[in-house]
Design goal:
This protein is of the alpha/beta class. It has 4 helices and 8 strands, in the order E-H-E-H-E-E-H-E-E-E-H-E. Bound molecules: iron/sulfur cluster. Iron/sulfur cluster (SF4) binds next to helix 2.
Length: about 150
């Protein structure tokens, strides 16, 4: 079965900044077709759980208390890429809106609960290296369509 990288929180791992998971029921359909490889870039980058929320501002990643955590985010992203290369993974499903995993949207960098178009650090790196990245809202794109039954008419 083909391996697929997935944000660990989408599978229910309690690894987000609040110490909670973000279980997505759709992953049960993915499991039927892929061998899921769980990964949390922020935890792998050395951040604690729970932790202050972070947002991308310019070319830095900053926690709400002002701590710069760009290095940790980049470490997590590089580990994700290394894992994909090692396991031959070419596709990833990543949690939307996250400063690590967001594939289309991230917060605006001012902790105002406002979203803007953009990608998280891990999503951006993986995509730049040719790995297909999808949000949890795009899981249907990864489920093979059932072969059409031949018409007897
Ligand atoms: Fe989920 Fe990604 Fe945030 Fe980890 S870094 S909690 S996998 S969204």
């Amino acid at each position: 079965m083909q391996k697929l990288l997935i944000s660990a929180c989408l599978v229910g791992e309690k690894c987000n900044y609040k110490g909670q998971g973000k279980y997505c029921p759709k992953i049960e359909e993915l499991r039927e077709h892929y061998d899921l490889v769980l990964f949390c870039p922020e935890m792998e980058g050395g951040l604690k759980c729970p932790r202050n929320p972070s947002e991308i501002k310019g070319d830095q990643v900053i926690m709400k208390d002002g701590t710069i955590v760009t290095r940790q985010f980049e470490l997590g992203a590089n580990k994700a890429l290394a894992l994909c290369k090692y396991l031959g993974i070419t596709k990833a499903v990543l949690k939307e809106n996250s400063p690590s995993c967001g594939t289309h949207r991230i917060h605006n960098g001012y902790f105002m609960d406002r979203l803007i178009a953009g990608m998280g650090v891990t999503a951006k790196l993986l995509k730049s290296k040719g790995i297909e990245v999808y949000s949890e809202d795009e899981i249907d794109k990864l489920i093979p369509k059932k072969s059409k039954e031949k018409s007897t008419e």
